[in-house]
Amino acid sequence: MHQRSKALALLLLLPALALFAALTLYPLGRVLALSLFVTDYGFEGATFTGLGNYVELFSHRFFRIATWNTIVFAVLATASEVGIGLTLALLVNGRIPGRRFVIPVIIMPYVLSTMVVTAIWRAWFHYDFGFLNNVLRAAQVPPVEWLFNPDIAMLSLVIVDAWQTAPLTFIILLAGLQVIPREVYEAAEVDGAGPVRIFRSITLPLLAPYLFLAALLRSVDAFKIFDKVFALTGGGPGQATETLSMYVYRLGFKFFDVGLASAASIIMVVVAGVLAAFYAARLLRGSS
Amino acid sequence: MTGGSSAGAWARGAATYLAAVLFLLPIVWMAATSLRPPIEYISPSISLWPSSATLEHYRALMADDVAGKALNSIIVALGATSLSLAAGFPAAYALVRLRFPARLDMAFLVFVLLVKLTPPISLAIPLYQVLRALSLLDTLMGLIIVYQVYTLPFAIWMLLGFVRDVPVEYEEAALVDGASLARRLVYIVVPVMIPGIIATAVFVMILSWNEFAYALLFIQSPSKFTLPTFIATLITEDETFWGKLSAIGFLASLPILLLVGFVQKGLTRGFGGGLK
After folding, report:
1. Shortest CA distance from B241: residue in chain A
2. pLDDT of B118-168, one tens digit each?
3. SS3 of residue A38 by DSSP
4. Potential cystine with A265: which of A149, B30, B122, B212 (Cβ 3.0-4.6 Å)?
5. How confident is the model at residue B270 (pLDDT cuts 50, 70, 90)?
6. Which fold, B58-269?
7. Is A45 left (phi over 0), alpha (psi -120 to 50) or beta?
8. Contact A247, A66 (CB under 8 A)
9. With a cut of 0.95, is the ipTM above it?
10. Alpha carbon distance B160, A16 (integer Å)
11. Do A1 and B97 count as a contact with CB atoms less than 8 A apart?
12. If you average pLDDT over residues B105-114, what whole number do you get?
């Protein structure tokens, strides 16, 4: 549609621009500046240290642990959520009685507040009276220290995350399966291809863009994880489940090492930015 | 896929229902536990249904002013949603319909996406300082404003698709008749977009209703807690407050669980984001 004034376009964009400037651009600039100082709050009385905070971070054992934990969590969570989502989507993408009711039921965990989700699973993981250990004991299996064994706590976190967000990957992949034309399958069946061959040569390649999108979306979110760690394990036992967001929170809001926390924030923004660039490239290619 | 043999179809149906039950089970457990006396859940039993139901947990919540917390959540969710729609709708309209110099529109969209994917905690320190400087720390108004970090990118991306669906011809006809932009928006674009605007509002409201990190960091007075921060205090306060936790969890989830069919439609339409 033709339009005379470019000023009008900018005017309509102005409220959103103003909010973004105040809530993201200015804070990002400020956190970048703070990351160059040793400070417990602002710039008053702060000592300039250049890249000193960054150097200190990389020598910090807890920073390395938090980085490693974040990577482990993101990989495990993304892999299990895409795997579960794909399995569910393949199951539901057929003729099943009551399909109309099954889909919303599977989506339910996804709309819940993370705090509600955490409240449920903390009870389920309880060693003495938790539902999971009660089931294990009833089956004559020794109970598990879901949240207090450092080797298991990360897996428990992944279980909760998968329960809450596999519904999202499920919906994305189901949408992907539904745009594959039925004729493609029929032609393959006429040619005598078995189900495994059909899955590998037709379903997977045609679903690839959706798998990529789901994996990217989940890994960006997994990288940010805070709420669940905060309320489920508090980062523990020890540092076993401390992720980068948790680390920044502790440094900035508990130890008031604002300079160091700002440097860690900037590193997170850079990593998220790289992931976001992939996502943006994908999305813009899809929409043009 | 035709599903092959009837045995195969049967197995597929059974597996699907089993999966659905597994996804539903924790929610059913929560609903049941909210009615269970403590003596029953501090036990090795795996039965889901309470043998003697009680409303004591709901009564205890009333005494904790759960209504006040729910009201805070409602105020913040409505406020954040209104602000996001008010700023997001004109932006989405301009990005789809108007011409920008030097591909500024594309640059803006990419920027919005970057904001959406930025870890919220990395903005928390400067936002805390901004809120404090503006005396908005520990206020619901402050929370409504900082929630735009999550909700505005989401609203803009979702509204873009709905603006694209409005046939340009409608607007062109009105333009020929000399209708101003304001008239076209009010009488043509908005009425056609009502379902899309409602869908966006529902998603943004759920997003704000469930938000936790900023509510934790920027609200200190218990009287201003939203439901998620209130739940968090109960989670860490006592290990086995499960009846009360389940009751409040159930109350906080009920309104959004009723919207799940709506969410399903929105998600299948376009996953420019996802909720979190």
Report:
1. A123
2. 899 999 999 999 999 999 999 999 999 999 999 999 999 889 989 988 888
3. strand
4. B122
5. low
6. MetI-like fold (1.10.3720)
7. left
8. yes
9. no
10. 14
11. yes
12. 85
